[in-house]
Amino acid sequence: MIKLLSGNITEIEDLLKDWSYDPLRYIKEQNSCNLQGYYMEDIQRIRDSGGSLIVAVEKDEICGFSVFSKLPWDSDYFNKQMGTVNYLIIDPKKENKDEIADALLKDVENRSKQKGFEFLLSKTSTNDYTAIHSLERKGFLMMDTILRFYYDFQRFSDRQEPLKCAGFQARLANVADCDELIQLSRRAFAGHIGRYHNDKNIPNEKATGLYELWIKSSCSGWADWIVVAEKEGRIAGYSIWKKPSDNQRKHGIDLVDYSIVATDPYFQKQGLFGLLTLEGMKLIRGNYRYSEGRTVVDNFGVQRGFIKLGWKICGGQHSFHKWL
């Protein structure tokens, strides 16, 4: 019989150590990196912020755990109480993995309802079929698939910008650019197909507005670098980059997040992704070891752009939504 209990952080160390779907496992070759310590501290931070850690126990042994918490940014924007399943990890040696995952997700849903949540998000590796099938059985709907790419700056070499980008100039954004960047986001993401655009409970305009809020927050200090490309005084696109978090630095994770890139539809198919990405890479070179970026699975242009610049694919991720 599986028991579900509010867990202690030290009880999950062994499961984290054997986690097959660790999204940052590609940087394990960096000897100073302590991924387990990073995840342990991340889970503790989530708990300290009001989240919950639930462990599954069978025959007095921990066989899985889940962590869930509120999505404060999304909740404020959509004016709904929204939560996320931060972690769902099952002992891979167990024959009844499906039963354990189902029990944990059912408990997460019940506790989420008690907290007043109206919505749950779960992101999982495209290879974690135990989690995927359990989410499907529990009524979660898949909203998108993201491919993740990384770059190791020990391999960086100077590259010539594509000739078809002639006429564009790259620079760092300043405060005066914010309004123009918001307007560009509105145009760039109007036809975007992201997970909130795919959710029938979210109006399309509201989903697009999230990207406007993203660049507005970035201009207000959330991002560390915003690279813009302009032509004849008009901003044609931007890329957003964020330095490693305090927890990442503490545990030797030398990773810059390539948060998002956007181009004005008027200037698309002129090589701007390569220019905006390369200029960001030049800022990182010599200061950080890795960067990670993401794109939807059917954005082949961005995927080709990453590969052309020497980035490597490091995983895929499904996003699931459930309205409670």
In short:
The chain is of the alpha+beta class and 324 residues long. The protein has helices spanning 13-17, 35-48, 72-78, 97-114, 129-137, 178-188, 204-222, 246-250, 272-284, 300-308; strands at residues 2-6, 52-58, 61-70, 82-90, 119-125, 141-152, 169-172, 225-231, 234-242, 255-263, 290-296, 312-323.
H/E topology pattern: EHHEEHEHEHEEHHEEHEHEHE
- Helix fraction, binned, reads 25-40%
Mean pLDDT: 92
CATH topology of the largest domain: Aminopeptidase
Shape: globular
Measured distance between first and last alpha carbons: 27 Å
In the sheet with the most strands, the strands line up as 1-2-3-4-5-12-6-11-10-9-8-7
Derived from helix and strand composition plus strand pairing, the structural class reads alpha+beta
Q: Low-confidence runs (pLDDT<50, min 5 residues)?
A: none
Number of helices: 10
Commentary on this structure:
With 324 residues, this protein is α+β, with helices and mostly antiparallel strands. It has 2 domains: 2-139, 3-Layer(aba) Sandwich (Aminopeptidase); 149-316, Aminopeptidase, CATH 3.40.630.30. The chain has 10 helices and 12 strands. The chain has helices spanning 13-17, 35-48, 72-78, 97-114, 129-137, 178-188, 204-222, 246-250, 272-284, 300-308; strands at 2-6, 52-58, 61-70, 82-90, 119-125, 141-152, 169-172, 225-231, 234-242, 255-263, 290-296, 312-323. The protein has a 12-stranded mixed β-sheet, with helices on both faces. A hairpin with a 2-residue loop joins strand 2 (52-58) and strand 3. The longest helix has 19 residues, at 204-222. It is globular and about 70 Å long. The two termini are 27 Å apart. The model has no long low-confidence stretch (mean pLDDT 92).
